[in-house]
Amino acid sequence: MNEDKIPETIQDIKERAALMKSRGFSIGEEQVMSQAIKDGLQAIVNDLMDGEYFTVQLINPKTFMILGVNGRTEGKIIARGESFNSDFKESSDRLWNYFWDQAEKIVGR
Question: How many domains does the chain have?
Answer without folding.
Answer: 1
